[in-house]
Design a protein that fits this description.
about 400 residues; alpha+beta; two-stranded antiparallel sheet
Length: about 400
């Protein structure tokens, strides 16, 4: 795959589209094949589940994850044994008992990601590695199997895309971190098309007042029903569209946007330009937490994806309305479980009940600090997220981009 990616930039656009589509066939099988349908049905069944029954399910999954981690993951076996924890005690733990376990710093995962991998997967089946700098600028390696990936996407399909009135099966678009338009190319088109998934992938690095008409023309041509990707990139696009009096020529179903905080102002500008509502999604490349926006506008944590704690500097749980450190325990990655993992974000619980009635899915008041600086280039293009600069550089501890003028 590395050689194909190296050759990509030398290919004409039509051949790049073909290559992306062939990759899309494999990617679709990876995410939407296997047990995806089964996992989606299970998430759907838990969407309105009785809270007591739901908590019982989450605790059973947690106990299974803790026991497997203690038996098979070198990192947890060593760290937990040193504190006197036993397998028997872990098998009885509930979500309320998680505070008894030590917090897992991101630096530990970055230092040795393979020490978190369960022995039966490390020695056997095929695993996938995803390299990222993350929103904090600290590179990490996330590891999972195809079946893990199907769990992640099934959760997003049910609790994110369907809540927004759409589906991952719909024609869709993406503005993300992949450089689909090779470095050094400044001319349209600023997108590439994945025929296998009916997905148009737009460049996040060419959005400017001059390029906006080309972007919108491609949107009107392919008419994605679902827009996904960077919240800030869609906002920048919508703002420039509004400044030029441009709107989409059709009405998509929804936008489900992530990576940065989606403010009320951003939602209003996006709705005017894109003629559809924007829904917020909060997650991480480590896939240990997922919060999604319901039809009433609340950002619900999905504990059957991952258990979220919000704690103060001393590690104590904070009351609603008080910002604290986000600690996550993932339940869906059966390859590289992350338990009481400090993502690096700050959030606050909400004290209000949501009118949607999903009381078993707690509500976050807001995720704090996931704001992005925007770099404006000499050609007036506006860009966020330069994490691609730092990906796959194993000796880089942290990265920062500085614009001097």
């Amino acid at each position: 795959m590395g050689q194909l990616e190296a050759a990509y930039k030398y290919c004409p656009v039509w051949l790049q589209n073909m290559g992306i589509s062939l990759y899309g066939i494999l990617w679709r099988r990876e995410r939407l094949g296997g047990r995806f349908g089964e996992f989606a049905a299970e998430f759907e069944a838990r969407d309105r589940m009785d809270p007591a029954k739901f908590n019982g399910y989450v605790n059973a999954q947690l106990q299974s994850v803790l026991s497997a981690a203690f038996r098979e993951a070198p990192y947890y076996r060593k760290k937990w044994a040193a504190t006197g924890l036993t397998g028997a005690k872990l098998e009885q733990m509930t979500a309320r008992d998680l505070e008894q376990l030590p917090i897992t710093p991101k630096a530990d995962l970055r230092r040795d990601p393979d020490s978190f991998v369960l022995a039966h997967t490390a020695s056997g089946g095929k695993v996938h590695r995803y390299l990222s700098s993350g929103s904090t600028g600290t590179p990490i390696t996330a590891i999972c199997t195809s079946e893990d990936h199907q769990r992640f996407i099934a959760a997003r399909e049910v609790r994110s895309f369907r809540w927004a009135g759409s589906s991952i099966m719909d024609p869709r678009s993406m503005i993300g971190g992949r450089m689909v338009v090779p470095k050094g190319m400044a001319n349209a088109p600023f997108h590439r098309y994945n025929w296998a998934e009916r997905q148009v992938y737009f460049s996040a690095y060419h959005i400017s007042p001059a390029s906006v008409p080309s972007y919108v023309a491609a949107m009107n041509r392919y008419q994605p029903a679902l827009f996904t990707g960077y919240a800030n990139s869609h906002y920048l696009m919508a703002r420039m569209m509004s400044e030029q009096g441009i709107r989409l020529g059709y009405e998509p179903k929804a936008l489900v946007l992530s990576s940065e905080k989606l403010t009320v102002k951003m939602k209003e500008v996006i709705r005017m330009a894109f003629r559809a509502r924007a829904f917020e999604e909060y997650g991480s490349v480590e896939n240990c937490i997922l919060a999604t926006e319901c039809e009433h506008g609340s950002l619900h944590v999905n504990p059957d994806f991952g258990i979220l704690e919000i704690v103060d500097p001393e590690g104590n749980a904070v009351p609603p309305g008080v910002p604290g450190r986000v600690i996550a325990t993932g339940l869906l990655n059966h390859t590289q479980p992350l338990i009481r993992y400090e993502i690096g974000d700050v959030a606050a619980w909400s004290a209000k009940k949501c009118a949607c009635g999903r009381d078993h899915l707690p509500v976050i008041e807001e995720v704090i600090g996931r704001l992005e600086d925007v770099v404006i280039g000499p050609d007036r293009r506006e860009m966020v997220r330069f994490h691609g600069i730092f990906v796959d550089l194993p000796h880089v501890l942290e990265g920062q981009v500085i614009q001097e003028e």
